[in-house]
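FORM 7B: Structural annotation worksheet

SECTION A. Query
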Amino acid sequence: MARRLVFPTVGYKYKKNLDEIRSDLKRLKTNKFIPFLEKYGEMGVAKLSEVTPRRTGKTAESWYYEITQDTGQGLVHLTWKNSNLDRTISIALLIQYGHFTKRGTWVEGVDYINPALKPVFEEMADEVWREVTGKYERNRSTGSSNGGGGTV
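SECTION B. Predicted structure
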């Protein structure tokens, strides 16, 4: 059975009352949330391009991001993708997870995507935390702020 391979995605799900959801949906319709995601989309592309193992450089240069909205479910997704394919298989994912060569030799994967995106996710979470709470520090292990307690 083939393994389904997916790229990292960031999602935002509503856990608010109906009036707050309506307000947020209006804000999404006016695309005020999109520049925030674009900022981190571009940051992720830069990090991934920087750390992608290079032979020709084609895979490193093929990173991009997509922002999709599902206002019916109150979701916005930021997804990083790579357009360098061998037929329909992503070369970036072959590098990440490993693969067999045409001669049957296994090439071990290199975990470069997760470490590259970790600081992007952390900075994004910190910015959201500051926006939601008005505080500047967040304890990453507990989700609590600098003395305020609570979680997002």
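SECTION C. Observations
Residues 9-82+115-129 form one domain. Strands lie at 9-12, 63-70, 75-82, 85-86, 89-90, 98-100, 106-108.

SECTION D. Sign-off
Analyst initials: ____
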